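Tutorial handout. Part one gives the primary structure; part two gives the three-dimensional structure as tokens.
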Amino acid sequence: MDFKATDIAAFLNGEIVGDGDVKVSDVSKIEEGREGTLAFLANPKYEHHIYETKASIVLVNKSFEPRKEISATLVKVDDAYQAFAALLDLYVQARQNLKKGIEQPSYIADSAEVGEDVYVGAFSYISSNARIGKNVKIYPQVHIGDNVKIGDDCILYAGAKIYADTIIGNRCIIHSGAVIGSDGFGFAPTETGVYKKIPQIGNAILEDDVEIGANTTVDCGTMGPTIIRKGTKLDNLIQIAHNVEIGENNVFAAQVGVSGSTKVGNNCMFGGQVGLAGHITVGDKVTLGAQSGVAQNIKSNQILLGSPAIDIKVAMKAYVLLRRLPEIRNEVLQLKKDLEEIKNK
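Part two.
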């Protein structure tokens, strides 16, 4: 699908500098721009690429003033990065709206309710008493368990598994291989040393605008729910244990693990491989650097790093010292030798 610069500028409420009739049919990075593609420049650090790019149209901030001649047509907007994201969102929506209807073979239980304009891909299974909202896209081989409720405008990509009694809000995205509502890890040791499984009778709740990455798991509660509140985004390969409560508008990078009954506040950012122990509380606006290990409560508005996690400034100083440990050891040994010599004299 081709878009003219004038169409793009109208959609973004932008200003055109150059040929308004030039067309694009794809996107590219500005440093890898090709003719017929759209790129963007948001960070001044990459300005030098705009003078060499072969992209036909480049989104730039309104404050941008070129220092040399540019061959591409510019579309000036308030925020080039946000504008580019809006165009990509429009492109994805247009592509997904082509998916409609119920493919065969697939199974929808007689007692299930499916809203208007729903797409159900082949080999999908929708169980008894499930409730599917309007304009939901269910890609092939998705399993939706008994009594599941899914809001409007959700997307469940191929192979997602939604266990019984799960509740999913509006505009949620569940990527391939994700499992929502699986059993929590609960076992009780017996006198013989054998572990007896504790039934997990809770459920999982995802509020509006939550995104779950590929192969991420969200366990149901042992009793009561596991909750992911609105606007939170989870990357791929994340484990959320039973009865965890994740607040609003958090972002967790890949391989984060949150142990059972832990509560995380709002607007937190966790780097890759962060691990949280169970039954602790993390406040609002907490940032944890990659591979941080947290075993105790954290107050709001902190940036921590390390295992155990400590204030990032302290952690960086400690890291500098850690790198110097061999040198410091040699200095201590030399001092010890010098003291022995003085003592002998």
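Part three, for discussion. The longest strand covers residues 37-41. The helical segments are 5-12, 80-96, 312-323, 325-344.
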